[in-house]
């Protein structure tokens, strides 16, 4: 059984070099998925590369009106950033549904994203919010939309040597609001059976001018359902519009039957949760407009 | 005395006059060899309506013994 | 693979240990440092029995590589009682009978103290959600929640009642 | 809050210590992390073990090649099932039920066949845990896969894969000539069930189902064994009964029991699941081969895959009543999983089904079914919650059909002292009616409900137990006392023992300390289980303490040169009550240093076979709120009422009731074993085996009813088992009240509730 090496370099370049040198190497942020996977034998990386000690990897900073979240920033630290929590409450709440307080004190949104689980709680909220991430790799840095990272359960589009160094959220649009809801059997310590993130913008008279709806656990990756967003745009989120959105959500849902939920239950919940999340997002948009 | 009636004796009632429960077990084993081997781990006796833990108790004044499956606990 | 040397501050004192690169902080605490108060109930961050405070935040020590603790500050259940008397949370667990088998108790006490360190007046709901990462199979949580609320009340009064020597 | 008023109502007399809530003697060690549990113990020079487990649910072991593992540096021993001695069938009862020691041994390490995914097939011991795990991976086991069967009805079907060719259904006449997966059938009852059902004004019929659930103790199994060259051995482990560990380990290894000394470590939860052995004989074999102490410990995943779940069930119920609500007939037929080896929950299930009601015509049939799952083990009131779920759901449905209040229907038919149980044995002084009356009087029963809320109730019972226990009460040299028992303390029993000793001796609680001795330091004591410890071991404590008083009084009499009957024990003092020395007193603290200068130290042993135990009854009221769009069920209020006889330490009595109720709520709502089509367990962890977390629950109002047991010096009946019995139906009945939908299949998880509410899909 080859043992795993542990590295804690102090520069992004060193991380990239270590990851590039060994295709089995894994970057270590919070480690809450990685350590479990190693312990269960699902993963046996040649080395683990802890990038938390690199300056700027932990914490939230403003860039213009937008937010830059270091890849090693634990989920609970997002709540502590009042401006972020006010601008993107859906994202912050989604990240703070993961696991328990203990887990969220370690777990990061970047890790949640790169673990590439279709049920990742923070990812639908990030996608709805139009978040991007900055990827560092052997050929430098690139910025990509969050939804382009996961490609299949447990698989990402990251090339060898690449890792996510930060997540970027745009400025909150005027009249914007977001929300994320999930369905789990328990109130905490659970994996989403279905998750729904909604981000929308209302104009002064309450008409929706743009909307993004993203769903978790209804397909191999988190999905952005453009039809669902379109169903809301131009409406005041009346019952017909919400019903149309729910239908679009259900049409876009292609879940599996597994130990956490059935196809029919997941499809039904996707519609219910997206509607409820849209209403919360609208309330937030209205409250802030 | 289910399930021991069907498992061992092919009857639900027997007329015996044992002097105590050890003696009863011996007599039942005589009727159905093998009963004595499982009596301690699997059987409880109720003597005149009360579960009896002491198998040496004199049964001279007892009128009825019910044979029950022994129940454990969690 | 050779072992890694790690230096930490553990319950206020300098502590060093050697660990396998893939060992968890919980493994190091229990097997290298002999502190078996932190328990392993699952090894996957789902039960909270291994809860410790690392650099000011409570974490599942089974979800931290021991090597990550280099230069860090760790508080375990063994360091909760200060000055040889029980912390109010420990005291209230005893007074309310908030433990039965006691196996999950260290994790609950570390987590509850972490809550009260930052929120001196939590609601019952806040206590329940904060402690949702700690599984208890014996008590049904009722007496645990009461003990934590009572400890909070006592800490707010800043009037330490009689406490048992640790 | 809890209901002291109810307690006062039934308390027969005032006690000094009984009924108080002192801090438990082992408390400080447990809140500071100092207490040593099963996985905490290490022996000098100890090796670390690892176990190889079957990936197949049913397979013949063709060969096991251990050569590679043995040649790995650091590996000191390898064990397989062939290392056990040849064993003859011997049925033993160590507390949870009867087991054949051949099956116990095979479950520790398979021989010839594996019977479930996770079945242990080999083990290694090495100098580090990493090497042990690596070596386990190098053991090559060749399997010939066999067809497997998981379901109850499937396992009983013609042509089903047979687990054992030497198991013939017990309890059927004539004796079967073909082996079967039905290991036992138990039938009880009497009267004309069919006739009475045909004549009943109202009948209900239902089928109820559930998969196995796990005990879910947070401490995984672990032990250290050290087997010396002279044949004597020591085992350090946590269990519900170290004497059971000794007797089972000695039996499967063909050793004299006196050669094994089992040290009881603190136990991190058991709930019935730690009344057997999994690791100890394997660690013993590895220790003997290596000449060193060996530690074996399970991961959580191993606990789920290989240790005792409670059986799942298929239960058919028919109940009939007259128009006035008199129950006239009940027909209950259930099948329980016994898993890989014959188990014994059917008898308990039959005894726990309908005995709480007076019904003239009854038939209760239970069948134990072998299947390719882990061997079922006792779980809190083993065998009772499953069948109670069916019966109490059906009674609720009957109340609805009759238009009678479900509490009144239960009161009308409730069994009382003297009424026959299903076995024919009459009930003793039970407190079932008192629980129902307490429920009626409780504010919860009449509190208003909010939207989408519903209220359900259910009652249940458990027989409790007595049996053998040994206790030594010793006077120290300064007049304080030690109480030594052989009963592991799972939930505060040291405190209960100290209270009962202090009450008997009339001394302060703090002057009595209770410890649990190893198997070589105290006489035999049965497991802590079956709600027997406070009753049976407590009885022994009182008996030994009484003898201590008697001995000290006679010492005082000798010292004073007065007749023995002239000295009385009064509140921890010996007092001369007659003759010229009348009024002379000596305290325990004064006489204690002198006893060594008389005939010797004072230490009294009570080895008893405790009789006179009485069953416990409970009645639970549950309010649920159902999110009809998602199927989520929230428990908004819960009251658990129970007759305990007498509460020795009410905190731990309430705690048992609350904990049991929450285990039942978990069983009702989300806990379940999920197997894939490949026969492998799909949720072997706390993430997907969803036990309740703190935020899932409200406070649990534990109402202690005290109808004292006349056969215990302080009235104890037993507490721990009963509270897991009623919750399954209480929750189901509350969901029905909230939604109009009756869920007959557990768990009532959001997807199931949703499906019931939205049958169109």
UniProtKB/TrEMBL annotation, chain A:
Keywords: FAD, Flavoprotein, Oxidoreductase. Gene3D superfamilies: 3.30.465.10, CO dehydrogenase flavoprotein, C-terminal domain (3.30.390.50), Uridine Diphospho-n-acetylenolpyruvylglucosamine Reductase, domain 2 (3.30.43.10). It comes from the Bacteria. Residues 1-174 form the FAD-binding PCMH-type domain. One of its GO terms (molecular function) is FAD binding. PROSITE patterns: FAD_PCMH. Pfam families: CO_deh_flav_C (PF03450), FAD_binding_5 (PF00941). SUPFAM superfamilies: CO dehydrogenase flavoprotein C-terminal domain-like (SSF55447), FAD-binding/transporter-associated domain-like (SSF56176). The lineage of its organism: Bacteria, Pseudomonadati, Pseudomonadota, Alphaproteobacteria, Sphingomonadales. This is Oxidoreductase.
TrEMBL record, chain B:
This is Thiamine biosynthesis protein ThiS.
Automatic annotation (TrEMBL), chain C:
Pfam families: Fer2, Fer2_2. GO terms for molecular function: 2 iron, 2 sulfur cluster binding; metal ion binding; oxidoreductase activity. InterPro entries: 2Fe-2S-bd, 2Fe-2S-bd_dom_sf, 2Fe-2S_ferredoxin-like_sf, 2Fe-2S_ferredoxin-type, 2Fe2S_fd_BS, Beta-grasp_dom_sf, Diverse_Oxidoreductases. CDD domains: fer2. Keywords: 2Fe-2S, Iron, Iron-sulfur, Metal-binding, Oxidoreductase. SUPFAM superfamilies: 2Fe-2S ferredoxin-like, CO dehydrogenase ISP C-domain like. Residues 4-80 form the 2Fe-2S ferredoxin-type domain. This is Ferredoxin.
Automatic annotation (TrEMBL), chain D:
Pfam families: Ald_Xan_dh_C (PF01315), MoCoBD_1 (PF02738), MoCoBD_2 (PF20256). One of its GO terms (molecular function) is iron ion binding. Signal peptide: none annotated. Transmembrane segments: none annotated. Residues 32-147 form the Aldehyde oxidase/xanthine dehydrogenase a/b hammerhead domain. PANTHER family: XANTHINE DEHYDROGENASE, XANTHINE DEHYDROGENASE SUBUNIT D-RELATED. This is Oxidoreductase. It comes from Novosphingobium malaysiense.
């Amino acid at each position: 059984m080859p043992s795993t090496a542990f590295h804690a370099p102090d520069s992004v370049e060193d991380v990239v070099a270590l990851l590039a040198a060994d295709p089995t190497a894994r970057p270590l942020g919070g480690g809450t998925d990685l350590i479990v996977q190693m312990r269960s034998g699902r993963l046996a990386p040649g080395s683990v590369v802890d990038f938390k000690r690199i300056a700027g990897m932990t914490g939230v900073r403003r860039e213009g009106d937008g937010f830059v979240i270091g890849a090693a920033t634990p989920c609970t630290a997002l709540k502590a950033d009042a401006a972020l929590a006010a601008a993107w409450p859906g994202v912050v709440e989604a990240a703070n549904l993961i696991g328990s307080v203990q887990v969220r004190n370690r777990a990061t949104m970047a890790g949640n994203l790169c673990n590439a689980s279709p049920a990742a709680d923070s990812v639908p909220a990030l996608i709805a919010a139009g978040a991007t991430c900055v990827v560092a790799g052997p050929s430098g840095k690139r910025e990509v939309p969050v939804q382009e990272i996961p490609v299949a359960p447990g698989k990402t589009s990251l090339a060898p040597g690449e890792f996510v160094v930060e997540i970027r959220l745009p400025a909150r649009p005027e009249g914007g609001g977001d929300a994320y809801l999930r369905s789990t059997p328990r109130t905490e310590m659970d994996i989403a059976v279905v998750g729904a993130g909604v981000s929308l913008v209302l104009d002064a008279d309450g008409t929706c001018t743009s909307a993004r709806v993203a769903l978790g656990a209804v397909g191999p990756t988190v999905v952005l359902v453009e039809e669902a967003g379109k169903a809301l745009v131009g409406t005041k989120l009346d019952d017909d519009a919400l019903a149309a959105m729910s239908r679009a959500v259900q049409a876009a849902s292609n879940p599996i039957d597994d130990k956490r939920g059935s196809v029919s239950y997941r499809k039904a919940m996707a519609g219910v949760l997206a509607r409820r999340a849209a209403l919360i997002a609208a309330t937030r948009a209205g409250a802030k407009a | 005395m289910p399930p021991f009636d069907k498992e061992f004796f092919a009857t639900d009632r027997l007329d015996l006059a044992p002097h105590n429960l050890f003696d009863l077990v011996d007599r039942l084993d005589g009727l159905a060899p093998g009963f004595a081997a499982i009596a301690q781990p699997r059987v409880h006796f109720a003597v005149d309506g009360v579960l009896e833990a002491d198998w040496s108790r004199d049964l001279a004044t007892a009128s009825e013994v019910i044979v029950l499956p022994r129940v454990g606990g969690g | 693979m050779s072992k890694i040397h790690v230096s930490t501050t553990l319950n206020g004192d300098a502590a060093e240990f050697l660990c396998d690169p893939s060992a968890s902080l919980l493994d190091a605490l229990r097997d290298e440092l002999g502190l078996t108060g932190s328990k392993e109930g699952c090894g996957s961050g789902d039960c909270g029995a291994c809860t410790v405070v690392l650099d000011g935040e409570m974490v599942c020590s089974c979800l931290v590589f021991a090597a990550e603790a280099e230069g860090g500050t760790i508080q375990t259940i063994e360091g909760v009682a200060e000055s040889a008397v029980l912390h109010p949370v420990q005291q209230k667990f005893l007074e309310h009978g908030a433990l039965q088998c006691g196996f999950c108790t260290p994790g609950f006490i570390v987590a509850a103290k972490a809550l009260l360190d930052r929120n001196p007046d939590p609601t019952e709901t806040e206590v329940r959600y904060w402690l949702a990462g700690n599984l208890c199979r014996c008590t049904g949580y009722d007496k645990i929640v009461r003990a934590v609320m009572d400890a909070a009340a006592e800490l707010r009064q800043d009037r330490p009642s009689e406490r048992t020597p640790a | 809050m809890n209901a002291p008023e109810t307690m006062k109502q039934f308390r027969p007399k005032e006690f000094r210590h009984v009924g108080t809530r002192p801090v438990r003697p082992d408390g400080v060690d447990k809140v500071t992390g100092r207490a040593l549990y099963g996985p905490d113990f290490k022996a000098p020079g100890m090796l670390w073990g690892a176990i190889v487990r079957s990936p197949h649910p049913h397979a013949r072991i063709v060969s096991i090649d251990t050569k590679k593992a043995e040649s790995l540096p650091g590996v000191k021993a390898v064990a397989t099932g062939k290392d056990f001695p040849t064993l003859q069938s011997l049925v033993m009862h160590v507390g949870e039920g009867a087991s054949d020691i051949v099956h116990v041994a095979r479950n520790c390490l398979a021989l010839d066949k594996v019977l479930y995914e996770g079945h242990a097939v080999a083990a290694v011991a090495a100098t580090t845990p990493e090497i042990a795990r690596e070596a386990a991976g190098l053991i090559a086991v060749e399997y010939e896969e066999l067809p497997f069967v998981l379901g109850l009805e499937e396992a009983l079907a013609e042509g089903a894969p047979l687990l054992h060719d030497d198991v013939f259904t017990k309890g059927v006449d004539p004796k079967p000539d073909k082996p079967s997966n039905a290991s036992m059938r138990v039938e009880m009852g009497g009267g004309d069930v069919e006739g009475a059902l045909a004549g009943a004004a109202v009948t209900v019929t239902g089928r109820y189902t559930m998969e196995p659930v796990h005990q879910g103790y947070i401490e995984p199994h672990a032990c250290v064994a050290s087997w010396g060259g002279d044949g004597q051995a020591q085992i350090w482990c946590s269990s519900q009964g170290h004497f059971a560990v000794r007797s089972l380990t000695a039996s499967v290894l063909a050793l004299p029991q006196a050669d094994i000394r089992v040290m009881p470590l603190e136990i991190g939860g058991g709930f019935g699941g730690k009344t057997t052995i999994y690791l100890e004989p394997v660690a013993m074999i590895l220790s003997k081969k290596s000449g060193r102490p060996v530690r074996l410990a399970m991961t959580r995943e191993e606990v789920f895959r290989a240790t005792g779940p409670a059986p799942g069930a298929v239960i058919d119920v028919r109940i009939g009543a007259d128009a006035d609500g008199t129950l006239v007939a009940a027909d209950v037929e259930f099948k329980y999983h016994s898993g890989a080896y014959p188990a014994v929950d059917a008898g308990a299930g039959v005894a726990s089904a309908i005995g709480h009601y007076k019904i003239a015509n009854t038939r209760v049939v239970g069948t134990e079914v072998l299947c390719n799952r882990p061997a079922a083990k006792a779980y809190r009131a083993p065998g009772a919650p499953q069948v109670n779920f069916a019966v109490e759901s059906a009674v609720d449905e009957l109340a609805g059909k009759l238009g009678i209040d479900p509490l009144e229907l239960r009161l009308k038919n409730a069994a009382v002292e003297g009424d026959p149980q299903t076995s024919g044995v009459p009930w003793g002084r039970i407190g079932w009616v008192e629980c129902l009356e307490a429920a009626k009087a409780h504010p919860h029963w009449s509190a208003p409900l909010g939207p989408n809320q519903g209220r359900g109730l259910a009652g249940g019972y458990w027989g409790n137990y007595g049996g053998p226990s040994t206790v030594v009460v010793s006077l120290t040299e300064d007049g304080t006392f030690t109480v030594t028992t052989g009963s592991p303390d799972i939930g505060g029993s040291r405190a209960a023992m100290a209270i009962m000793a202090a009450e008997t001796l009339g001394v302060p609680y703090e002057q009595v300390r209770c410890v649990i001795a190893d198997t070589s330091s105290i006489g035999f004591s049965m497991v802590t289980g079956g709600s027997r410890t406070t009753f049976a071991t407590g009885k022994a404590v009182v008996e030994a303490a009484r003898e201590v008083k008697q001995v000290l009084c006679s010492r005082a009499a000798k010292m004073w040169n007065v007749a023995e009957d002239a000295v009385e024990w009064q509140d921890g003092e010996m007092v001369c009550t007659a003759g010229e020395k009348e009024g002379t007193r000596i305290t325990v603290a004064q006489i204690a240093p002198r006893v060594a200068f008389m005939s010797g130290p004072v230490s009294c042993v009570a080895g008893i076979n405790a009789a006179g135990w009485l069953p416990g009854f409970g009645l639970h009221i549950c309010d649920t709120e159902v999110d009809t769009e998602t199927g989520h069920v929230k428990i908004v209020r819960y009251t658990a009422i129970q007759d305990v006889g007498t509460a020795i330490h009410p905190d731990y009595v309430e705690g048992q009731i609350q904990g049991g109720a929450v285990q039942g709520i978990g069983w009702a709502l989300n806990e379940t074993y999920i197997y894939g089509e490949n026969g492998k367990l799909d949720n072997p962890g706390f993430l997907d085996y969803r036990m309740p977390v703190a935020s899932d629950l409200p406070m649990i109002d534990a109402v202690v009813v005290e109808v004292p047991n006349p056969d215990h010096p302080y009235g104890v009946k037993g507490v721990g088992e009963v509270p897991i019995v009623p919750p399954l139906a209480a929750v189901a009945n509350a969901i029905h009240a909230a939604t109009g939908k009756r869920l007959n299949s557990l768990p009532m998880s959001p997807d199931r509730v949703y499906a019931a509410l939205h049958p169109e899909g």
